[in-house]
Amino acid sequence: MGVLKAEVVVFSVTRFCVQAFGRRGGLLRPTEVRECYFEEDARREMEVLARRSSGVALYRVRGEPLSGLWGKPKLIERQGEILTLE
User: Fewest CB within 10 angstroms: 25, 56, 57, 58, which?
Assistant: First the structure.
């Protein structure tokens, strides 16, 4: 009887996220977030959200979706008021 070997394929992906911020009760808070596979798409989303938000942040994050391990987000661009990304 043969022995079966399992292979684990680990792959890393990059996601581009746009986080919108709005003021509620005088405080700046995160509101809506949109995730994109391509930076160009995220920039378009950023323009849409910027029209109705106090601020927006476009950032890139890399990670392994199967394991749930993600690196720290890297800010690419911002418009208006935003909070620090964690």
Answer: 25
Q: What secondary structure letter does DSSP report for 65?
A: T
Distance CA(54)–CA(71), nearest Å, equals 26
Per DSSP, the three-state class of 71 is: coil
E strand or H helix at 50, and its extent? helix 39-50
In this predicted structure, the answer to whether residue 8 has a pLDDT above a threshold of 80 is no
Write the Ramachandran bin of 52: left for phi over 0, alpha for psi from -120 to 50, otherwise beta.
alpha
Prediction pTM value: 0.79
Helix (H) or strand (E) holding 36: strand 27-36
> Residue 32 and residue 20: Cα distance in Å, rounded?
5
